[in-house]
Amino acid sequence: MRHVAILCIFAEKYSGMGKEIERKFLVTDSSFEQMASESVRIRQGYLCTDADATVRVRVVGDRAVLTVKSRNRGAVRDEWEYDIPPSDAADMLGRCCGGRYVDKVRYIVPFGDRTWEVDVFGGTLAPLIVAEVELPSEDAPLELPAFVGREVTADARYYNSSLCMASEPPAAEG
To answer: What average pLDDT does range 46-51 have in this prediction?
Structure first.
């Protein structure tokens, strides 16, 4: 827990804290692929998965970031993000994440006045597909695209920090 406290102190001292307001949904079909403006491969692992402070290392294309996130309060949580050298990120994924990381392709999908991020998971998490959208406030109106199904915002099984530890996609609830 000490390393989390040190990272949080560093984050408060050296960066403006951001708020992440995000809703997450399961995806029901592949129509998002035709709507996407771009896609990129993402590999991410977790240095800490404590509910009060997750610490993520992520490689997106040729960019790498270290992110600290607070506990979720509904669809809202605090977030700090720092660019790091891609070689450091690769080392962290290999040495510090115990070989457990998420490998996915993210599609950027403009829809209405929002930008959706649709993640197609690979490896043992296939065929899981999840769509996320960031909002300016928790009560912001949201038009749902046709490819969106059941909301899983509050379902911890669909947090990337949980998926990273999973050997298969979460079982559908009946």
So the answer is: 88
* Domain 19-163: homologous superfamily in CATH: Hypothetical Protein Pfu-838710-001 (2.40.320.10)
The reply to whether 46 belongs to the active site is yes
pTM confidence score: 0.83
Angle at 78 between CA 135 and CA 102, to 5 degrees: 80
Query: pLDDT tens across 142-168, in order?
Result: 999 999 999 999 999 999 889 988 999
Catalytic, out of 14, 46, 82, 158: 46
Q: Which two tokens stand for residue 63?
A: 């960019």
String of DSSP letters for 107-159: EEEEETTEEEEEEEE-GGGTT-EEEEEE-SSTT---PPPTTEEEE-TT-GGGS
Collect all residues with Cβ–Cβ distance below 8 Å to 143 and sequence separation of at least 6.
111, 112, 114
